[in-house]
């Protein structure tokens, strides 16, 4: 009888051990292991986010420089638009163009009629042509003067021809014939 009790006790112990093992295995399989996997995924995401954050921080000076450049460009555009008059070129423009030519030493021979107004982006432009005579330095000063006029302009074409009437003229400054075509801009 004692043998039988021991035998039954052994079976009960084995069943208990098996039940505890199954309980621990189930807890491990369905509780701890998924949490472990989730933790590993969280750690991986944290590392990836840290790397992305460090890259973003490294770009901060580049972004600040780009913003500064954008602000400077916006300021230049604003300043340029302030220089841009309302309406087509008028007598004031012609007067300023003649003053630039006179200051540069260019004798204006003719100013053909201005072209028709054209839409040029958000602004309007008009083609202006000037033909004159002067020496090389005068031609260069005239071109610089056009770029510094109150009206904004874009150089379309420049033709400079040198003329020498005699071999003796080669030693002196040659006379240049200049034809300048440029667009001047305005707002309506």
Overview of this protein structure:
Helix 2 runs antiparallel to helix 3 (136-147). With 188 residues, the protein is α+β, with helices and mostly antiparallel strands. It is rod-shaped. The chain contains three helices and five strands. It has helices at residues 2-83, 91-104, 136-147; strands at residues 107-110, 118-120, 123-134, 153-163, 175-186. It folds into two domains: 1-83; 91-186, Alpha-Beta Plaits (2-Layer Sandwich). The model has no long low-confidence stretch (mean pLDDT 83). Strands 1, 2, 3, 4 and 5 form a five-stranded antiparallel β-sheet that branches. Helices cover 57% and strands 22% of the residues. A hairpin with a 2-residue loop joins strand 2 and strand 3.
Summed up, what is this model?
By secondary structure, this protein is α+β, with helices and mostly antiparallel strands. It has 3 helices and 5 strands; from the N terminus they run ααβββαββ. The protein folds into 2 domains: 1-83; 91-186, Ribosomal protein S6/Translation elongation factor EF1B (Alpha-Beta Plaits), CATH 3.30.70.60.
- Helix tally equals 3
H-E string: HHEEEHEE
Give the total of beta strands: 5
What is the name of the CATH architecture of the largest domain?
2-Layer Sandwich
Per CATH, the class of the largest domain reads Alpha Beta
Largest sheet: 5 strands, antiparallel
Class from secondary-structure proportions: alpha+beta
Our estimate of the beta-strand percent is: 15-25%
Helicity, as a percent range = 55-70%
CATH-assigned homologous superfamily of the largest domain? Ribosomal protein S6/Translation elongation factor EF1B
The pLDDT mean sits at: 83
**What is the count of distinct domains?**
2
Distance between the termini: 118 Å
Radius of gyration: 43 Å
**Principal-axes shape call:** rod-shaped
For this structure, the quaternary state is single chain
């Amino acid at each position: 009888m004692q043998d039988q009790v021991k035998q039954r006790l052994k079976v009960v112990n084995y069943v208990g051990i098996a039940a505890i093992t199954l309980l621990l295995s189930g807890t491990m399989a369905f509780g701890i292991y998924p949490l472990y996997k989730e933790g590993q995924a969280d750690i991986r995401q944290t590392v990836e986010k840290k790397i992305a954050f460090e890259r973003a921080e490294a770009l901060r000076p580049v972004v600040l420089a780009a913003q500064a450049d954008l602000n400077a460009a916006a300021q230049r555009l604003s300043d340029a638009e302030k220089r841009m008059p309302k309406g087509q070129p008028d007598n004031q423009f012609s007067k300023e163009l003649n003053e630039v030519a006179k200051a540069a030493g260019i004798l204006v021979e003719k100013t053909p009629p201005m072209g028709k107004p054209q839409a040029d982006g958000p602004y309007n432009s008009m083609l202006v042509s000037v033909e004159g005579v002067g020496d090389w330095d005068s031609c260069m000063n005239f071109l610089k003067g056009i770029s510094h006029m109150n009206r904004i302009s874009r150089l379309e074409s420049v033709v400079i021809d040198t003329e020498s009437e005699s071999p003796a003229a080669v030693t002196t400054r040659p006379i240049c014939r200049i034809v300048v075509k440029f667009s001047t801009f305005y707002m309506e």
